[in-house]
Fold this sequence. Notes:
By secondary structure, the chain is an all-alpha fold. It has 17 helices and no strands.
Amino acid sequence: xxxxxxxxxRLRKDKHITLQNVExxxxxxxxxxxxxxxxxxxxxxxxxxxxxxxxxxxxNEFFFAYQYAQVSASPQPATAIxxxxxxxxxxxxxxxxxxxxxxxxxxxxxxDLVADIVTQQTARFHQHPNHANLLALAFWRSEYRxxxxxxxxxxxxxxxELPPDNSTPILRHYLWNVDNWGIYEIEIFxxxxxxxxxxxxxxxxxxxxxxxxxxxxxxxxxxIQAKLLIDDFTxxxxxxxxxxxxxxxxxxxxxxxxxxxxxxxxxxxLRGWLEIASGDRxxxxxxxxxxxxxxxRIGSQAQERIWTNRLTExxxxxxxxxxxxDLNF
Length: 329
């Protein structure tokens, strides 16, 4: 049986986080953590939570990784592993979200509010210079730069006033180099996707789909990849990355969960949305209304209402930045 410490060590190394960084974040000595990882001692539940927070992993993901290790210990195909895990996990608790998991949205005129957050986060990082605070600071600096760029553009001012972009590369490097994507990495990507060019976005997205495959075996997150793709599609549309948005639609159609009727119907709507944004309003609206009609026929009133409202917004302003990102996994 694989000890919990070994699972923790693998997850920590997957994210390229050192024992010293965990110690800085938690105040727990790296020697104690090292003995836990080697199976030389157990650790209390009160210490486990901060240790998981330090490597951006939820209880749900941690204990799922433990079960995954047990089930996959003997050679068997991925489908058999998935079936076994579904039998073990009828209901799993919701994952917690990190500091970056915010539903607050800012308009360009609010760039000064974000500047205050950057100041606060800078102080927080200087006081506690750990991995999580570095990523949070990089996010808020990138958010400030993005909003200030929009503000300057809307007020016909020179972009020469923009500060250099030293933070987006930090987020991109982290997402590119971690060995596996969990909820934390998906949240960072979706929150940061507007900072990347469409070409960078699609490269990172393809990486994320590959690196989140194990997470998608978790019954609590079985639709996580479809959700990641659908949310990012809307981000690419808002940036007029139509070629990349079309690639996302192909990825959605290739997902195993694309057999799910709801995912298929949404894909039809997204195809129509792309056509409307690309200039073919008549054919695009027809496809969108076809998907809404299917939701009506199968009695999914909530989905019918949601996508009807979204179509109304799209038709009112095809180039409006309608970004649909929900971090409630």
